UniProtKB/TrEMBL annotation:
It comes from Neodiprion lecontei. SMART domains: RAB (SM00175), RAN (SM00176), RAS (SM00173), RHO (SM00174). Keywords: Nucleotide-binding. Coiled coil: none annotated. PANTHER family: PTHR47978. The keyword Nucleotide-binding applies. This is Ras-related protein Rab-24. Belongs to the small GTPase superfamily. Rab family.
Length: 204
């Protein structure tokens, strides 16, 4: 799933407690699949994956850092979200402790990267569909998200519900910023010029 690190236009970081489904969310987005064994496996440090997206006929690359949720890796995690343009803060919709940790990560992130756009992500919606109760109530989460001016997505990595919509929204929000659009277009121009130069300027 994870690629060698290419040039990245948009750095996205995944934050949240262990076993909330960050890695499953990433795998669903990158490979459109769900691994039943992933919920029982913890990321050590961080893992990286990338994917090219296209918005308004403009192609650019998302580089996504999947960080470890364990508190023992907390200091290391801070290294990975520096410079991130977007962050997906995940929590398990049936786990109150993971919700409290999600709020911690929002505070921590905004104290370091004030301009990073935060997306709150409640995972495991399929469990709610089976009749389990959300903890806390989704109304509380939605009010919290509105209060901190971030978008809230309720997703199921297992079924794929709303996962692609989440990353589509992140991509569209990024390219809608004129500064980001300029950076992407400049990078495209530089790449095109580099390819032209390599063809037109033989050595010797």
């Amino acid at each position: 799933m994870y690629n060698d690190m290419p040039k990245v236009d948009l750095k996205v970081v995944l934050l949240g407690s262990s076993n909330v489904g960050k890695t499953s969310l990433l795998e669903r987005f990158i490979d459109d699949r769900f691994n039943e064994n992933l919920p029982n496996q913890s990321t050590i440090g961080a893992a990286f994956a990338s994917k090219e997206v296209c918005v308004n006929n403009i192609k650019f690359t998302l580089g996504i850092w999947d960080t470890a949720g364990s508190e023992r890796y907390q200091s290391m995690t801070k290294l990975y979200y520096r410079g991130a343009k977007a962050a997906i803060v995940c929590y398990d919709v049936t786990n109150l402790e993971s919700w409290e940790r999600a709020k911690y990560w929002v505070r921590e992130l905004r104290s370091v990267e004030e301009t990073c756009v935060v997306y709150l992500c409640g995972t495991k919606k399929d469990i709610l569909d089976e009749g389990k109760t959300a903890t806390p109530d989704l109304d509380i989460v939605e009010r919290y998200a509105a209060g901190i001016q971030c978008k809230f997505y309720l997703v199921s990595n297992k079924t794929g519900e709303k996962t692609s919509e989440l990353f589509d929204e992140i991509s569209k929000d990024y390219i809608s910023d004129p500064d980001n659009l300029h950076s992407v277009m400049e990078a495209i121009t530089l790449t095109a010029n580099s390819k032209t130069d390599s063809r037109c300027c033989p050595i010797g």
